Structure formats: C-alpha cells, structure tokens
Amino acid sequence: MKRTVTVDIGTTRTKLGYFDENGNQLISEVQATPTRADAWGTIYDSDALWSLIVRYLRRLDDHNRQTLEKIAIAGVGESGGLVGEDLRLNSPMILWHDQRGEAAINRLSAGERLRIYAITGLPANANYSISKIRWAVAAAPNPVGDNKWLNVSEYVAALMTGQRWAEYSLASRTMALDLRSATWSPEVCGLFQVDPSLLPRLEPASFGYPLTKNFAALCKLPPDVQVHVVGHDHMVGGVGAALSQGELLNSTGTTEGILFLRKEPSLDSTSATAMLANGIDCESGAYTLFASIPTGGSAFETLQHLLAMSESMLLTCIAALNDRYLAGQIDLARIPVVIPHFRGSPPPEKRASARGVIANLSSDVQAEDIVLGCFLGLAMQFKMVADLFPDPPASVKVIGPASENYLWLHLKADVLGTDLSVSKFPEVVSRGAQALASADRCDWSGCHPIEIATDQRRHEQIQEWFSLAKPIFERLEGV
After folding, report:
1. How many domains does the chain have?
2. Does position 113 have pLDDT exceeding 70, yes or no?
3. Within a domain: residue 326?
4. What CATH number is associated with residue 418?
5. Domain check: are 128 and 214 in the same one?
C-alpha cells in the first residue's frame, strides 16, 4: 500500500484518515459535513468543507506529511456543481437527495424513461445528477467560460490539482453515462437539453494527478503526491470489504445501501420496474447493481427528536432492548408497525415525497416499543428491497455505523434468516480508498469481522408477526 490520506465526504459526516504502507490507520478525524441553506434547499458549504480538509492536512506532523504518497477522495454520488476553468463554483454544490431538478424528470414520457434505463441503467429520478445540471445551467445568472459538472469529491480533487475530471463509478450515478460504452451519452443529454461538453473527461480510480505547487506549499506536502478520485462511497466500501460476486454488501450510514457486483448490467424490464440502479464498479471493470434506502442510520436522529431522547438515552434503550430480544422477552404483538419512510421511500416506489407512518399503537405504548418497532421496520424494509434483486446472496457483509447497533443487526439477521458478517473496522470506505489509490487489494479479514447468527426460533416468530402485520404494511405504504 501507499501512504495515503483518505477523504470520505458523506451526507452527514466527512471522515479524514491517514494510512501507512501496511494499511494501518494512524490518524482519524470525523467532522460534520458543512452545509447551508439556499433559496431552494440545503447545499454543501464548499468553502467550509475545503477549510476543514486543508486544516487536517496542515496539522499532520512533519514525518507524515513528507512521507505521504497519495490523497484518495471518495464521496456520495449524485451531488455536484458547475465548476469553471478558474475552479470557481458557478452554481451551488447540490446535495445528492436534492429535488430541484424534478421538473425535468416530470416532463419525460414513459418511452423516454425506458430508453434512459436501457442506456444508463438508472431509473429516471431527480436524485441523479443530470436533472440538477439542467437546473444549474438554467439558474446560473451569468454562466462563465468552460463550465464542467463535478461531483463534490471531484471538485475537491480539482482544487488540489488544478484539473477537472470525473471518475467512472461516480459518473455512472449522473444518469448521463452510457453504461456499456462507458462514455457520456449525447442521446440522454439531449433529452434534458444539456450540452455534453459540460461533462468532464473520464478517468479510473487508479488514475491520479499531482498537487499544484501552490497547494503543496500551502499544506507543506511533497509536490509529487498524487490525488485520486476513487469513487462512489458505497462502491469504494465494496472494495474495502473485498466484496466478490454473489455477496451482498450492506453499506450503512445516513442511508442504507444494498450492493452486488455483476459481470453484466441488469437492464431488463424486471430490474427497471424494481428501480434498481446499475453502475460501474470503481475497481475491476465489473458492473454494480445497487439500491439505496433513504432512511438508514438517520432513523437514530429521527427517534431522538420524536421521543425527546438524548443520544445516550437512546443508546441505553437500544442496548436494553437487544438484551431483552435475545432473551426472548419481547412480545412482538404489542410492537407498533413502523413504515420508516422518514426521508422518502426506497425502490420499487422511490418517492422523495413519501413519509413515515407509525401504526398499531395501544394505550399503554411506551417509547421503547416505538424504538423496537422502528428498527424492526428498517429490517423489514431491507428485506423487501433485497428481495427485488435477481439472485439471493451467498453471504451478507455489513459495513458502517450499524455495526455498533446490535439490536438492528440481530433483527436484520432474523428477518432475513441469514447470518451476517459484520465489519468491526469503522472506516471500510477509507480502507477501500487507500487500496484503489495504491492499485492494491483488501481482504475481509482485515476488517475484523464478527458473525451475527440468525436464530431459527426468532426468525419464525418474526415471520408469524409479519404475516399478521403485512396487510397493515401494504395499506400504509400506499398512503
């Protein structure tokens, strides 16, 4: 491995790390990802984001700075902004879930939506970048020079290197990339009246540019340090988890991702109806099949607000519920039915306007019942989305913050009826980022996985509970 600083730009948090040549993380820092409001919603505070990255690099000691070889940047897909030749932002840096481009999606005919899926492997949805590009061009008061649309990770790399380029796995989240040819699609751009010249040249994750002299001097770094945009965070996590074909990666964070590797894209009508998202893997030239569940770890914050619990109170409640659940002391019949669409619904509906519902409340309902119902709802939602994929997984690997929530893990294993292999290394995406920038590979054992075994008795109890609760789920999901 190469000595690497990793930057993982998430929706909620930005993680920075320093990895040595043996893949050991020497320094780790987690900061809230800076955002601010604009007239249309919430956007990245790109100046504040840039400042926290520069501050991290400048705080490294002399030895770590002078021996640094790579900077590897990963981040959320679908985000981005228009960046001029002078590297100034000529639009907001828009978040992935922003819907300001929705009008361009709503104008599409059924035939155009099918054609877009056949070319890009993505269901027509305002989360993807091309509708945001259309919006940004129309909203820019004075478009300046040779603008290029860059993902937030690509923008940070441009500031470090003076170069504007796109990485393939992130490009496959724009809904502008021809999946089979791995080139920008003039046909799809035409449907959105987007000039293809707004899209930058494409480079693989293994490709890096050197720092500019000014940036190297600012951070006191060797001028030959190479900067790599390594890709979409879920896909980079797959590299860190040594994901192989047939395995399911459950990537948890603010959202929850389900990822499979495939030899060929899945562009048939079944996948299109299920609204599964195809993509290009950032390592092996394989394809990915992916579904994003909008409510994942963010449910923790929702529960805090809903139940007026502090973080420590909620953690204590979850730990106590897990002990009772494993001891067989939970009466599922009294647990509320929770549809956890707190940030929109997952495939096959994929509606940003969907809202969560809590039902089946009794007069003696307690806060802990709602907490358990929420995580049971998350586990049921996960199974429903996983069942949309063409093939059942040979095994399930879990990465991200959910690895610390044993109630969620045990519920998920019992709902699936499948054992889980759970990483106890907290920064699997960063681990994958170093490997990609180093042109090296990871092994799953390096993530220090633990096994969460399914329990047949609890699995049967949950199946029985769901058979009674299913009509409620079906009615409420249509609300």
Report:
1. 2
2. yes
3. yes
4. 3.30.420.40
5. yes
Tokens of 228: 């790599």
CA distance 333 to 469: 9
Judge whether residue 144 has pLDDT over 60.
no
Boundary residue ending a domain (209, 236, 263): 236
d(Cα 121, Cα 177) in Å, to the nearest integer? 9
**291-310 burial code (b ≥16 CB/10 A, e <16):** bbbbbbbbbbeebeebbebe
Mapped onto helix, strand or coil, the DSSP state of residue 308 is: coil
Distance of CA 276 to the CA centre of its chain: 14
Distance between start and end Cα atoms, the chain:
51
Cα Rg for the chain, rounded, in angstroms?
22
Distance CA 130, CA 157 (A): 21
Residue 183, both tokens: 């080139």
**8-state DSSP, 286:** -
Report whether 103 contacts 132 (CB < 8 A).
no
Q: What does pTM read for this prediction?
A: 0.92
Q: β-strand 81-83 against 148-150: which pairing, if any?
A: antiparallel
Contacts of 109 (CB under 8 A, 6+ apart): none
Tokens of 221: 């770094």
Distance CA 347, CA 477 (A): 12
Instruction: Decide the pairing of beta strands 450-452 and 420-422.
Output: antiparallel
pLDDT band at 143 (very low <50, low <70, confident <90, very high): low
**Rounded Cα gap, residues 315 and 317, in angstroms:** 5
My answer on whether 337 and 472 are in the same domain is yes
Eight-class DSSP state of 401: G
Q: State how beta strands 247-252 and 256-262 pair.
A: antiparallel
Q: Residue for token digits 């030749």?
A: 85
Residue whose C-alpha is closest to residue 70's, from 32, 132, 19, 10: 19
- Answer yes or no: is 56 within a domain: yes
Return the half-sphere exposure (C-beta side, CA atoms, 13 A cut-off) of residue 195: 11
Q: Are 430 and 18 in contact (CB under 8 A)?
A: no
